[in-house]
Sequence to fold (125 residues):
Amino acid sequence: MTKTALLILFFITIFALTSCCSNDVSEPVINNRPAAEIVKPVVANVSISKYQFIPNKLKIKSGQAVRWVNNEKRQYHSIWFEKNGEKESSYLFPDDTYTKRFTTVGTFEYRCGPHPEMIAIVIVE
Fold:
């Protein structure tokens, strides 16, 4: 096929997809309010600084997420829920972040893979 034929086929496909789909997407409603207004997941931040997770004990609600930020100047770290059988996160270099959503109630201990003395917990209520 020529480039022109491929381009025409591309535009025909896009037109067909957009014309067959309705733009009327209704949002879930709970008690006459959009669900997004009622269930607003919140992100809690944990700073990684001076070889510590700050705070080292964090309480959140089920459905919320935690975002870890490496605020070290040169050191890399990871987030590892080893006792839960989870894989270690990729290494977080300075200013890198890692986010995890918690949907199960419980206490979750984690540590830094390269620095096992760095231990903290997330308590999900």
